[in-house]
């Protein structure tokens, strides 16, 4: 599929890596924020959006699940990217010279052990690729960046240390968003269905709403809650299940869910990524 795919960050970011791996024929479109990436798809400046939602080490990406239900977009795919963190320095620099490492706060938190071992002081930057660009522009061998090898290639930096993350299965999950839903059965690892809902204001409503999935043998892989509009009494839930809306057991589970909810909105139907069964990030 030709076209453009938007992601948050600069060229060389892990979102760029996700685009290159999942949609290699599409042109990556860097965006400053997740909101900008979503808006690029809404406006038609991009055909798809690659949105990071959770990391196996750091947890879920803040605010993203607030953005998705109001985006007007639909989830059509997922991608798991193995996050290898590298220490990048200016040409000719040596690891022993490095005093500081700059990156997004998420990456800094994922390689504390290496930084501590080498007495490198972490500095928070705007994002991973932006930090690499800033280090390249500064040209000081005492200062390095934590980023991908793609960023090293783009900004002309040397890789001073490879794969320095604390956990050897560090993985980020991305959702691929589109203007139109795709309800076809596809992929080789089964289908996933995502939706948001609000429960009715009755005792044990959430417990009863979830019961339909258990009794009908539908595996729920994710359930997250968050406030709506800043009100403690207005809670919305984001959920993902294994299966397709046309599956009989899924239909029965949704029938029971509907009885105990004020609203249900389908967010997307997409093929499960094969890597989901290898290492799924926690929510």
From TrEMBL:
EC number annotated for this UniProt entry: 4.2.1.51
Key words of the record: Amino-acid biosynthesis, Aromatic amino acid biosynthesis, Lyase, Phenylalanine biosynthesis
Top-rank lineage group of the source organism: Bacteria
GO molecular function terms attached to this record: prephenate dehydratase activity
Domain (Prephenate dehydratase) ranges: 4-179
Catalytic activity: prephenate + H(+) = 3-phenylpyruvate + CO2 + H2O
UniProt entry tagged with the keyword Lyase: yes
Enzyme class: lyase
Pathway(s) where this gene product acts: Amino-acid biosynthesis; L-phenylalanine biosynthesis; phenylpyruvate from prephenate: step 1/1
One GO CC annotation: cytoplasm
Site residues, Essential for prephenate dehydratase activity: 172
Protein name: prephenate dehydratase
